Amino acid sequence: MRAVALVALAVALVLVAAASVAFGARGVTWADIVAGVSGSQETLAEAAVSQRVPRTLLAAVVGAALGVSGALMQGVSRNPLADPGIFGINNGAALFVVIGMTFFNMTDQYAFIWVALAGAAVTAVFVYLVGSLGRGGTTPLKLALAGAATSIALSSLVSAVILPRVEVMDSFRFWQIGGVGGAAFDTISRVAPFLLVGFVLALVSARGLNSLALGDEMARGLGVHVERTRIIAGVGAVLLCGGATAVAGPIAFIGLVVPHVCRMLFGPDHRWLLPLSACTGAVLLTASDVIGRIIARPEELEVGIVTALVGAPFFILIVRRMKVRAL
């Protein structure tokens, strides 16, 4: 069943990728698509197709990264409401990028990647430390509360830095919405090593995350090194989330919706949940990008807005069905 679902998702990804290349603000013919995919940019239509190819690839890669990072965070925290946005990871990356742009005149995309990764890592460690304070140590509820409070604080800091600086606000606001419109093969190649390492660490931690779902004591009884598993999975999540945020901005709800749906449909086994979340995230983000280009013709609706419109109702549904003690 899960293998069939994985194949079906792969086919769906091919179909939405084809739609992403074919549909957009500018209409194109089959001849334009063939020429544009081949690299020709002699006409405006061929140039549009040529630009959609890296955009489609980036949407698929970022969607997969966010889906897997959300699954890792939910596994580490044992909290189905965990995702990079709710835990403040996106805002941590955004704050470091804003500081780099404002105080260090940072413009290089490669520098953005390193700075965003640093911000994501610092935020993840801070949230985990705060969630570990007090009696009982780390609990899913304490982690969720620490992440929510940190996310709000970081968002306020981002606003405090950019509001007095109009020139920074103009360049940052498009990145902050979250989108893949400025994709280029050079950008993808720069972030690819970080995402690849993140995916590998995610797969390595899959068995350990299955044991963590039973509780720390049970996991230790099964011979799992709990802290090492959390560190490996956490580093993988930070690399995936930080890299995706650096190149596409803080896209919300993919990391929450995708793993939750995959877990409900295919079970909690992370050996299957992680690749299924990767494929589903890639399909969802690519499809959202296509929708954003079609419904707002001749303009475009950024993919971060589309995913928020899809994810917000789903998040409310999850919260209504969950009980606090289940967190």
From TrEMBL:
It is a multi-pass membrane protein. GO terms for molecular function: transmembrane transporter activity. Its main location: membrane. One of its GO terms (cellular component) is plasma membrane. Keywords: Cell membrane, Membrane, Signal, Transmembrane, Transmembrane helix, Transport. One of its GO terms (biological process) is siderophore-iron import into cell. Pfam families: FecCD (PF01032). Belongs to the binding-protein-dependent transport system permease family. FecCD subfamily. This is ABC-type Fe3+-siderophore transport system, permease component.
